[in-house]
Structure prediction request, 62 residues.
Amino acid sequence: MAVGIIGEEKPRYFSIARWGDAELTLEQAKKRLQLEKCILWLTSTGGILVLVVAMFAVAHGG
Prediction:
């Protein structure tokens, strides 16, 4: 059995055996999804920043 969290751009599903066996509550699953979105944003922003710094260094002969 799986429980889905809808309301995002695409639904995400967390697998559980039975409702009583769920390791995550709905609130914990929502927090985990929010954390994943935040980490994705930070990673992409950091990658762009590294690219800009590298281009600046190459342009100035560094």
